[in-house]
């Protein structure tokens, strides 16, 4: 018996030792990962000029890492915390998509139904022919609505802003036949938001707050800025003149279902755990969550092995499936990526619109999975900002030159070194050509975004770098200065030496 006790005691000691060693190795490995993550995030944050970020990792139902970087408000040096709120951009779409699936489960709608069953007046055409668009096609971005329909979303904080937004589609032709191909159009989810309003007979924001966020336990999250009564919202920024610039964009309340849930990483961790099969409840069972991850394969992949589900992008990489989505608003960006097989999720929120947010989130996932990471990231907004800043510097130099030339011409006119001449003959033709050239240039500057991209300057002013707006006004200003300078040269001429002498003698005699 004593021998048996010794053997059991030895085995227990051995097992405990092995457990301790394994725990030590896991902790050491985890510590190594977190050091890499923190170094990478801070390095990329500095390069990207993003003021503040909040990062969270969940695994097997637990929050295994949560860290905050930088500032909620740069001027006040207020640090980001896990309670700091951010607009989460298009990662909002998964909430709207899940609400649609839940309403179908409850028998309130069918995704195969035409959208006109729920919004009778929404009659859209393709090449002049009326089309039937299903709720599924809206969910999967195969409705045929053009991606540049985002330009038409009206600025509004009115309670009927969602309906006003959807009504802008009545004046827009579909870009392709419904169900034919994928084309990402944010307003698809605003239409679904209006469907939810009409089916539930309550405002979209209240339904999502009470029937989606609260059951998940996301009590510190909000559906639109009008719901927020908190000082925890991070100040939003845009890139401009090579640094962060504070900016407050217009309110687009009609775009809430597609991009304006406001949350923090503590609540987003709960959201990811739900998606990964934890903390399920009566409102959202496992089957419903799985259905929301089911990709639409009725159209071609929009990226390599990438298909769209109900507010999620589903990607196959190296025999693994990832569920992800990025979000971008004028002054915020977010990225959520999950690996269901490992019950692993990463989310990152930031207070600047930057593709660095997505690349950082992807890199964090790679580090946690033990993969190598590339830090050679680029951001289109930064590139545009650099180009605009250089061009504006050149324009400023030209502007100074033209202003000096203009002032010199005016001084000569005051000193009678230049005199007016009659506007006739060639002078009329030259003035007309000068006017036409300047007007044509101004019209080109105003219309070029519309011609090349289908956007307006007003849209670019909201979404683009601050320097782009400065460049636009720079072109306008220098054109006006150049025009005035040219007109003065055309309408005046140098006085001849004899006239100047005669004028000088007359002045001398008068003084005598």
Automatic annotation (TrEMBL):
Keyword Transmembrane: yes
SUPFAM superfamilies recorded: beta-lactamase/transpeptidase-like (SSF56601)
Gene3D superfamilies, alphabetized: DD-peptidase/beta-lactamase superfamily
Cellular compartment(s): Membrane
InterPro entries reported in the protein's UniProt record: AmpC-like, Beta-lactam-related, Beta-lactam/transpept-like
Chain ranges of the Beta-lactamase-related domain: 38-354
Broad class of where this protein is predominantly found: membrane
Keywords assigned by UniProt, alphabetized: Membrane, Transmembrane, Transmembrane helix
Acetylation among keywords: no
Segments traversing the membrane: 387-407, 428-451, 471-491
Pfam families named among the record's database cross-references: Beta-lactamase
Name of the protein in question: CubicO group peptidase (Beta-lactamase class C family)
UniProt organism field: Fictibacillus halophilus
């Amino acid at each position: 018996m004593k021998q048996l006790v010794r053997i059991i005691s030895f085995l227990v000691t051995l097992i405990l030792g092995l457990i301790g060693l394994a725990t030590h190795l896991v902790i050491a490995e985890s510590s190594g990962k977190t050091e890499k993550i923190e170094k990478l995030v801070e390095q990329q944050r500095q390069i990207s000029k993003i003021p503040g970020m909040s990062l969270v990792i969940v695994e097997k139902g637990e929050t295994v890492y949560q860290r905050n970087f930088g500032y909620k408000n740069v001027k006040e040096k207020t640090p980001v915390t896990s309670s700091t709120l951010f607009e989460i951009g298009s990662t909002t779409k998964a909430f709207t998509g899940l609400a649609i699936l839940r309403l179908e489960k409850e028998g309130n709608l069918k995704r195969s139904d035409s959208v006109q069953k729920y919004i009778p007046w929404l009659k859209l055409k393709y090449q002049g022919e009326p089309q039937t668009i299903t709720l599924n096609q809206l969910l999967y971005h195969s409705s045929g609505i053009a991606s540049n329909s985002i330009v038409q979303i009206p600025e509004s904080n009115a309670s009927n802003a969602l309906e006003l937004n959807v009504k802008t589609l009545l004046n827009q032709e579909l870009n392709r036949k419904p169900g034919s191909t994928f084309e990402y159009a944010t307003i698809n989810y605003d239409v679904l938001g209006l469907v939810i309003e009409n089916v539930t007979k309550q405002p979209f924001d209240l339904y999502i707050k009470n029937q989606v966020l609260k059951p998940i336990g996301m009590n510190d999250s909000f559906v639109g800025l009008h719901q927020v009564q908190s000082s925890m919202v991070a100040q939003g920024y845009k890139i401009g003149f090579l640094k962060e610039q504070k900016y407050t964009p217009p309110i687009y309340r009609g775009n809430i279902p597609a991009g304006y849930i406001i949350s923090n990483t503590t609540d987003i961790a709960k959201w990811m755990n739900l998606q990964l099969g934890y903390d399920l409840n009566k409102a959202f069972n496992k089957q419903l969550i799985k259905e929301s991850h089911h990709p639409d394969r009725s159209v071609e992949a929009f990226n390599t092995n990438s298909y769209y589900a109900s507010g999620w992008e589903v990607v196959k990489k190296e025999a693994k499936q990832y569920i992800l989505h990025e979000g971008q608003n004028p002054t915020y960006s977010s990225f959520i990526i999950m690996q269901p097989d490992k019950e692993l999720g990463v989310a990152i929120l930031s207070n600047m619109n930057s593709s660095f947010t997505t690349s950082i989130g992807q890199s964090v996932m790679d580090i946690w999975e033990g993969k190598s990471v590339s830090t050679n990231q680029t951001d289109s907004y930064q590139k545009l900002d650099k180009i605009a800043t250089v061009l504006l510097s050149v324009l400023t130099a030209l502007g100074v030159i033209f202003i000096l030339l203009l002032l010199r011409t005016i001084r000569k006119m005051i000193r009678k070194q230049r005199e007016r001449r009659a506007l006739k003959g060639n002078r009329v033709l030259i003035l007309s050509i000068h006017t036409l050239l300047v007007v044509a240039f101004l019209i080109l500057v105003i219309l070029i975004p519309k011609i090349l991209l289908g956007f307006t300057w007003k849209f670019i002013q909201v979404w683009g770098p601050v320097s782009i707006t400065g460049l636009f006004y720079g072109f306008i200003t220098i054109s006006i200065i150049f025009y005035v300078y040219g007109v003065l040269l055309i309408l005046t001429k140098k006085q001849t030496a004899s006239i100047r002498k005669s004028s000088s003698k007359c002045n001398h005699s008068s003084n005598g």
